TrEMBL record:
PANTHER family: GNAT FAMILY, PUTATIVE (AFU_ORTHOLOGUE AFUA_3G00765)-RELATED-RELATED, N-ACETYLTRANSFERASE DOMAIN-CONTAINING PROTEIN. It comes from the Bacteria. It comes from Chitinophaga flava. This is N-acetyltransferase domain-containing protein. SUPFAM superfamilies: Acyl-CoA N-acyltransferases (Nat). Residues 40-186 form the N-acetyltransferase domain. One of its GO terms (molecular function) is acyltransferase activity, transferring groups other than amino-acyl groups. InterPro entries: Acyl_CoA_acyltransferase, GNAT_dom, N-acetyltransferase.
Length: 186
Protein backbone atom coordinates (compact mmCIF):
# COMPACT_ATOMS: atom_id res chain seq x y z
CA UNK A 1 0.00 0.00 0.00
CA UNK A 2 1.45 3.36 -1.03
CA UNK A 3 1.77 6.18 1.48
CA UNK A 4 -0.49 9.14 0.80
CA UNK A 5 0.30 12.67 1.88
CA UNK A 6 -1.74 13.67 4.88
CA UNK A 7 0.08 16.70 6.24
CA UNK A 8 3.10 18.88 5.71
CA UNK A 9 6.03 17.04 4.20
CA UNK A 10 9.42 18.38 5.20
CA UNK A 11 12.11 15.85 4.40
CA UNK A 12 15.80 16.12 3.66
CA UNK A 13 16.13 17.23 0.03
CA UNK A 14 12.39 16.72 -0.51
CA UNK A 15 9.94 19.42 -1.51
CA UNK A 16 8.23 21.37 1.25
CA UNK A 17 4.45 21.07 0.97
CA UNK A 18 1.48 22.23 2.93
CA UNK A 19 -1.19 22.16 0.27
CA UNK A 20 -4.00 19.65 0.02
CA UNK A 21 -3.83 19.54 -3.78
CA UNK A 22 -1.19 16.82 -3.48
CA UNK A 23 -3.23 14.53 -1.23
CA UNK A 24 -4.17 12.24 -4.09
CA UNK A 25 -0.53 11.71 -5.03
CA UNK A 26 1.83 9.35 -3.27
CA UNK A 27 5.06 10.71 -1.80
CA UNK A 28 7.26 9.33 -4.59
CA UNK A 29 5.07 10.98 -7.26
CA UNK A 30 5.32 14.35 -5.51
CA UNK A 31 9.07 14.17 -4.97
CA UNK A 32 9.66 13.30 -8.62
CA UNK A 33 7.14 15.67 -10.20
CA UNK A 34 8.76 17.69 -12.96
CA UNK A 35 7.44 19.52 -15.98
CA UNK A 36 9.68 19.90 -19.01
CA UNK A 37 9.94 20.83 -22.64
CA UNK A 38 12.89 21.11 -25.02
CA UNK A 39 14.29 24.16 -23.22
CA UNK A 40 13.16 24.14 -19.60
CA UNK A 41 12.80 21.92 -16.58
CA UNK A 42 10.32 22.94 -13.88
CA UNK A 43 11.23 21.23 -10.65
CA UNK A 44 9.35 21.55 -7.36
CA UNK A 45 10.97 23.97 -4.95
CA UNK A 46 12.75 22.13 -2.12
CA UNK A 47 14.41 23.16 1.11
CA UNK A 48 17.84 22.88 -0.51
CA UNK A 49 16.77 25.64 -2.97
CA UNK A 50 15.88 28.15 -0.23
CA UNK A 51 19.00 30.35 -0.45
CA UNK A 52 18.78 30.72 -4.24
CA UNK A 53 15.03 31.29 -4.05
CA UNK A 54 15.58 34.03 -1.45
CA UNK A 55 18.20 35.68 -3.71
CA UNK A 56 15.70 35.71 -6.58
CA UNK A 57 13.44 37.95 -4.53
CA UNK A 58 16.22 40.15 -3.12
CA UNK A 59 17.01 41.06 -6.75
CA UNK A 60 13.53 42.58 -7.21
CA UNK A 61 13.93 46.20 -6.14
CA UNK A 62 10.27 47.21 -6.38
CA UNK A 63 9.01 44.48 -4.06
CA UNK A 64 9.74 43.78 -0.42
CA UNK A 65 8.29 40.33 0.23
CA UNK A 66 10.33 39.55 3.35
CA UNK A 67 9.24 39.71 6.95
CA UNK A 68 11.69 41.33 9.41
CA UNK A 69 14.64 39.01 10.11
CA UNK A 70 13.17 36.30 7.87
CA UNK A 71 15.69 33.63 6.90
CA UNK A 72 15.81 32.12 3.40
CA UNK A 73 14.26 28.87 4.67
CA UNK A 74 11.52 30.67 6.61
CA UNK A 75 10.72 32.83 3.55
CA UNK A 76 10.60 29.78 1.28
CA UNK A 77 8.38 27.87 3.70
CA UNK A 78 6.00 30.83 4.09
CA UNK A 79 5.64 31.34 0.32
CA UNK A 80 5.11 27.61 -0.24
CA UNK A 81 2.21 27.74 2.20
CA UNK A 82 0.57 30.36 -0.02
CA UNK A 83 0.90 28.36 -3.24
CA UNK A 84 -0.84 25.32 -4.63
CA UNK A 85 2.38 24.41 -6.42
CA UNK A 86 5.71 26.22 -6.73
CA UNK A 87 8.38 25.26 -9.24
CA UNK A 88 11.92 26.37 -9.80
CA UNK A 89 12.72 27.15 -13.43
CA UNK A 90 15.88 25.53 -14.77
CA UNK A 91 17.43 25.14 -18.20
CA UNK A 92 17.26 21.53 -19.43
CA UNK A 93 20.95 21.61 -20.35
CA UNK A 94 21.92 23.05 -16.92
CA UNK A 95 19.40 21.55 -14.48
CA UNK A 96 21.50 22.38 -11.43
CA UNK A 97 21.06 26.15 -12.00
CA UNK A 98 17.85 27.86 -10.89
CA UNK A 99 16.95 30.76 -13.19
CA UNK A 100 13.59 31.64 -11.67
CA UNK A 101 10.32 30.40 -10.26
CA UNK A 102 6.71 29.98 -11.32
CA UNK A 103 3.68 29.08 -9.27
CA UNK A 104 -0.02 28.41 -9.18
CA UNK A 105 -1.89 29.83 -6.20
CA UNK A 106 -5.31 30.87 -4.93
CA UNK A 107 -7.10 27.93 -6.53
CA UNK A 108 -10.82 28.66 -6.60
CA UNK A 109 -12.42 25.24 -7.03
CA UNK A 110 -15.94 26.64 -7.11
CA UNK A 111 -15.21 28.91 -10.08
CA UNK A 112 -12.58 26.61 -11.66
CA UNK A 113 -9.86 29.26 -11.71
CA UNK A 114 -6.32 29.65 -10.40
CA UNK A 115 -3.69 32.39 -10.36
CA UNK A 116 -0.32 32.12 -12.05
CA UNK A 117 2.87 33.97 -11.21
CA UNK A 118 6.59 33.86 -11.63
CA UNK A 119 9.91 35.62 -11.62
CA UNK A 120 13.27 35.27 -13.35
CA UNK A 121 16.74 36.42 -12.41
CA UNK A 122 17.56 39.51 -14.49
CA UNK A 123 20.23 37.68 -16.51
CA UNK A 124 17.54 35.34 -17.89
CA UNK A 125 14.82 37.87 -18.65
CA UNK A 126 13.79 38.68 -22.22
CA UNK A 127 14.81 35.28 -23.61
CA UNK A 128 11.41 33.59 -23.77
CA UNK A 129 11.96 31.45 -20.68
CA UNK A 130 8.98 32.73 -18.70
CA UNK A 131 6.64 32.29 -21.65
CA UNK A 132 7.86 28.71 -21.99
CA UNK A 133 7.49 28.11 -18.24
CA UNK A 134 3.97 29.55 -18.22
CA UNK A 135 3.01 27.32 -21.17
CA UNK A 136 4.03 24.28 -19.10
CA UNK A 137 2.34 25.60 -15.97
CA UNK A 138 -0.94 26.37 -17.76
CA UNK A 139 -1.07 22.81 -19.11
CA UNK A 140 -0.39 21.53 -15.59
CA UNK A 141 -3.20 23.73 -14.23
CA UNK A 142 -5.63 22.28 -16.78
CA UNK A 143 -4.56 18.68 -16.14
CA UNK A 144 -4.13 18.73 -12.36
CA UNK A 145 -6.65 21.33 -11.18
CA UNK A 146 -9.16 21.10 -14.05
CA UNK A 147 -9.43 24.89 -14.20
CA UNK A 148 -11.24 26.80 -16.91
CA UNK A 149 -9.60 30.16 -16.23
CA UNK A 150 -6.06 31.31 -15.41
CA UNK A 151 -5.61 34.68 -13.69
CA UNK A 152 -2.51 36.87 -13.62
CA UNK A 153 -2.00 39.95 -11.47
CA UNK A 154 0.82 42.44 -11.71
CA UNK A 155 1.65 46.09 -11.19
CA UNK A 156 0.15 48.41 -13.83
CA UNK A 157 3.65 49.60 -14.75
CA UNK A 158 5.06 46.08 -15.25
CA UNK A 159 4.83 46.28 -19.04
CA UNK A 160 7.04 43.23 -19.61
CA UNK A 161 4.76 40.95 -17.58
CA UNK A 162 1.63 42.39 -19.18
CA UNK A 163 3.00 41.87 -22.70
CA UNK A 164 4.12 38.35 -21.80
CA UNK A 165 0.71 37.16 -20.65
CA UNK A 166 -1.04 38.97 -23.50
CA UNK A 167 1.14 36.91 -25.90
CA UNK A 168 -0.22 33.84 -24.11
CA UNK A 169 -3.80 34.93 -24.77
CA UNK A 170 -4.61 36.73 -21.52
CA UNK A 171 -7.03 39.68 -21.65
CA UNK A 172 -7.12 42.65 -19.30
CA UNK A 173 -10.13 42.43 -16.98
CA UNK A 174 -9.63 45.36 -14.65
CA UNK A 175 -7.25 47.76 -12.93
CA UNK A 176 -7.49 48.57 -9.24
CA UNK A 177 -5.13 50.96 -7.52
CA UNK A 178 -1.73 49.93 -8.91
CA UNK A 179 -2.67 46.36 -9.90
CA UNK A 180 -3.91 45.03 -13.22
CA UNK A 181 -5.79 41.73 -13.45
CA UNK A 182 -5.57 39.70 -16.65
CA UNK A 183 -7.15 36.34 -17.40
CA UNK A 184 -7.24 33.58 -19.95
CA UNK A 185 -10.21 31.32 -20.55
CA UNK A 186 -9.05 27.77 -21.29
Amino acid sequence: MENKLSSIIIQKQAPLFTNISFLSMNIREVEQMELKNDTLLLKLLSDKDASVYYKLYTERMNEHPFLPDETPLAFTTRILQLCNVLFTIRLRNQPEIIIGDCALHDWDQKNNEIEIGGSLFKAYQGKGYMQSAFDLLIEHAKDRYHVKKIIGKTQVDNNHAIRLVEKLGFQKEKEENSTVLLSKIL
